[in-house]
C-alpha cells in the first residue's frame, strides 16, 4: 500500500487529499478544502493579486505540515485556470517550492480534463458509459466525453463561477440583464466547445466540484452538507433550473444563511449555477449525476506506480 498526497489549486479553492492507494483504489486519510480565491481579479488584470498569493501560501503551509505528519511517500500538486492565465505565475511557483518542497505543475486544460475524468470514473462505479463529465471550476470548466473504449475527447472553456461573477454578476441579486449577458457568454463558449466535444451524444452527464455538489445539496433539501448523501445523487435538469432561479433571486445574506453553503461560495454560486444549467440545457440532458470525486482523486491516482 502506498500513501500519496495530491493538491489541487484552482481559481477559487485549494484542496488536499492524503490517501492510501491499494489496487487502484483510494482510502482517504485527509480530505480538506480552503477557499483562497487565488484567481481574484485575474480575468481583469492578468496577474495573481498579492493578497490572493498570501492566502494560498498560508493554506499551503498547513497542507505541507499535514503531509509531513501523515508520512505521504509521493506528492503532486497541480495548478489550473487562474495560474495558467497569470503573467506573474513565476511568483506562484517560487512560493509553492518554498512551502511544499516540490514545484506545482501548471497543467493544460486537456490535462485537467483527463485527471477530472479519471477521478470521477473511479468514484462512480456502475455508471454506464459513455460519460460526459463537466468539471465546473472558478475560472474554467472542463468537458470530457469518454468511456466504452473510445478515446477521451475534451475541451477547456474559460468560464467558471468566479470568472462569470466578476465579469457579469455585479449586483446583489443580479439583474435580468446581467444574467442574460452571462448566458450569452456561456452559449458562445459552449458553441466553441461543441467543435471539439460532441455535446448531444446521449451520454450520461456527470457533474463535478463545489458548484455542482452545492446545487445537489440544495435540490435534495439537506439540512447540512452531507457528502455521502450528495455523492452519486441524480438531480433533474428541472430541479437545477429551480435551484438556479432561487439562488439568483437571493441576496448575499440569504445565500449565506443556507445550511449547505460554504462561506467561500456565497458570492459566486449564482455564476456557477448558470454554468451548470446552461450546459444541461444545451446538451439536452434530463439530469446530472453528482460526484464528490474529481480532479483531486485523479491527481492522487496518477501517483500510483
From TrEMBL:
Domain spans labelled Ppx/GppA phosphatase N-terminal: 17-304
Pfam families hit by this protein: Ppx-GppA (PF02541)
Highest taxon of the lineage: Bacteria
Official protein name in the record: Ppx/GppA family phosphatase
Amino acid at each position: 500500500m502506498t500513501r500519496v498526497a495530491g493538491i489541487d489549486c484552482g481559481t477559487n479553492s485549494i484542496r488536499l487529499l492524503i490517501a492510501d492507494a491499494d489496487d487502484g483504489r483510494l482510502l482517504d486519510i485527509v480530505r480538506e478544502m480552503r477557499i483562497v480565491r487565488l484567481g481574484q481579479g485575474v480575468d481583469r488584470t492578468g496577474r495573481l493579486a498579492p493578497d490572493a498569493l498570501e492566502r494560498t501560501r498560508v493554506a499551503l503551509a498547513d497542507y505541507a505540515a499535514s503531509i509531513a505528519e501523515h508520512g505521504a511517500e509521493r506528492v503532486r500538486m497541480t495548478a489550473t485556470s487562474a495560474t495558467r492565465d497569470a503573467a506573474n505565475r513565476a511568483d506562484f511557483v517560487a512560493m509553492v517550492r518554498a512551502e511544499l518542497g516540490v514545484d506545482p505543475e501548471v497543467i493544460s486544460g486537456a490535462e485537467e480534463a483527463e485527471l477530472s475524468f479519471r477521478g470521477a470514473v473511479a468514484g462512480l462505479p456502475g455508471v454506464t458509459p459513455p460519460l460526459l463529465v463537466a468539471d465546473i471550476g472558478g475560472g474554467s470548466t472542463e468537458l470530457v466525453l469518454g468511456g466504452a473504449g473510445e478515446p477521451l475527447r475534451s475541451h477547456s472553456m474559460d468560464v467558471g463561477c468566479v470568472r462569470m461573477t466578476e465579469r457579469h454578476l455585479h449586483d446583489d441579486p443580479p439583474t435580468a440583464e446581467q444574467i442574460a449577458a452571462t448566458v450569452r457568454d456561456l452559449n458562445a463558449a459552449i458553441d466553441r466547445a461543441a467543435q471539439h466535444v460532441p455535446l448531444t451524444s446521449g451520454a450520461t452527464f456527470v457533474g463535478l466540484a463545489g458548484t455542482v455538489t452545492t446545487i445537489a445539496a440544495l435540490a435534495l433539501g439537506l439540512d447540512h452538507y452531507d457528502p455521502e448523501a450528495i455523492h452519486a445523487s441524480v438531480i433533474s435538469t428541472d430541479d437545477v433550473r429551480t435551484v438556479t432561479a432561487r439562488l439568483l433571486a437571493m441576496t448575499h445574506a440569504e445565500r449565506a444563511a443556507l445550511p449547505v453553503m460554504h462561506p467561500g461560495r456565497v458570492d459566486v454560486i449564482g455564476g456557477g449555477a448558470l454554468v451548470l444549467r446552461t450546459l444541461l440545457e444545451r446538451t439536452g440532458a434530463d439530469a446530472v449525476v453528482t460526484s464528490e470525486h474529481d480532479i483531486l482523486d485523479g491527481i492522487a491516482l496518477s501517483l500510483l506506480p
